[in-house]
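Q: What does the assembled structure look like for these inputs?
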Amino acid sequence: MSLKVLKFGGSSLADATHFRQVADIVKADPTRRYVVASAPGKRQGSDTKITDLLYKCYALAVNEEDVTNVFNEIKQRYIDIINDLGLDLDLTDVFEKIRGSLLHNSGRDYIASRGEYLNAMILAKFLGFDFIDAKKVIFFNEDGSFNSEKTNDVMREVLSAHEYAVIPGFYGSMPNGTIKTFSRGGSDVTGSIVARAASATLYENWTDVSGFLMADPRIIDNPKPIKTITYKELRELSYMGATVLHEDAIFPVRYSKIPINIRNTNRPEDKGTFIVPETDDIGEYVITGIAGRTGFSSVTVEKAMMNMELGLGRKVLQVLEENGISFEHFPSGIDTMTVIVSTKALTEKRADVLAGICKNVNPENVFVEENMALLAVVGRGMVKAKGTAARVFSSLANANVNIRMIDQGSSELNIIIGVDANDYITALNAIYNEFVK
Ligand code: ASP
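A:
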C-alpha cells in the first residue's frame, strides 16, 4: 500500500502563499500522510531565515543584550502567516514561553528548534492534521549521537496512532529530555527517519529546485536535470560539493531501500529527481553528473625502489593521521607516492607533516603542490560504456587543460581528475559538453 512522507524546506514554508501551495500538494494525494516541516526560510534574497534569527536572539541573550527587536521580528513572521491564512490559532503563550526560556538561558539548540516547532504547529492546523512533537519521537544518546533504534521503535508506535500528521524537522531530545538539533539543514534527516519508521513507499523532499542538476548551474549554463540517481552516485557527487540534500538524510531510507524524490514546491508539475537504491536504467547519458571543488594540495614523496619497501605507504599516511589531516586520494607510481589533501588542513601543519615524512620514511624528495582542483565524473553507465575515460581525457586535451592526477574507483562509478585550479571552470565545461551537449 502506498504511503508517502513529505518534507518541506524553509523556502517552501516561508509565507502564507507557500503554505497554500504546500496544502494543495499534500491534499492532491491521500497517500501523502506524514509531513515534516522546516522553519520559515527566506521570502526573498535579502530576507533572513527564522533559524538564523533564533540563533541571533540566543547570542544576544547570552551577552545579556536586549532581544526585543529580533524576537518581535520572529514573532511577526509567524503572526503574518497565521493571519494571512485566516487561522484561528493563538500562539501567545508559546511565544511567551520561548521568550522566557531565552532569558533563563535554556540551551541554544532548544531556541533554534522553536523555528520548526512553531511552523509545524501552524501547518498542522492549516492542513487539519495531528501535530506530533519531534521531542517525543526522535532521540539522541548521551554522547549526542543519534539513537536510531529507539527512535525507530517509538516513532513507529506513535505514527500508527495518527493517520495524518505534521512533525517538526531538525530536532529531537536527549536522554534527560533537553532538546538537541541535528546539524544545519537537518529537517531532511527528520524526513528520512519518519519515512523509515512509517515504512513509506516514497520520501518526497520538497524544495525550491526541480531536483539535482548534472552540474553546478553557477559554472555550467543551464545544466540538464538528473531524472534518476543511485544513493552511491549521489554520495560521490555530494562529496564533491553538489548539495541539495543533507548528507545524513540518505542513511535511514537507504536502510529500508525507500526511494527519495526531490521536488519543487513552486513547480509541482516537474517530476524532479528520484534517488534510488539501485537501477538497471542507465539514463540518457553515460554520465549522471559532474562536480568538483578547488582547494586541494598534493604531497609527493619520491624514493627509489619504493615499491619494495614494506609499510612505506602506511608510514606516510600515519604522519597525516598524527597531524589530524584526512586524505582524499593517493595515486602512486613505483617510486613516487602522492597524497591529495585539503589545502586548508595542510597549511597549518605543513612543516610538521614534511618533517614527519622525512623522519618516518627517509625519502629522496618530498614536496607540496598547491592550487589543485578535483573533478568527479560520476555515472553508473560508465561500467558498460567503453571509451568513457578516453572521452574525458581528449575533451580536456582539446580544451588545453593539463591533467595533474587521475583516479578511477574500482567500482567504475567515477573518475576523479586533478587539474590546476585555474583550469577548473574550463575543465568542467569541456567534460560536460563532451557528454551532454
Ligand atoms: N531550519 C534549520 C536550518 O535552517 C533546519 C532545516 O531547515 O532543515 O538549518
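Residues 108-127 form the longest helix (20 residues).
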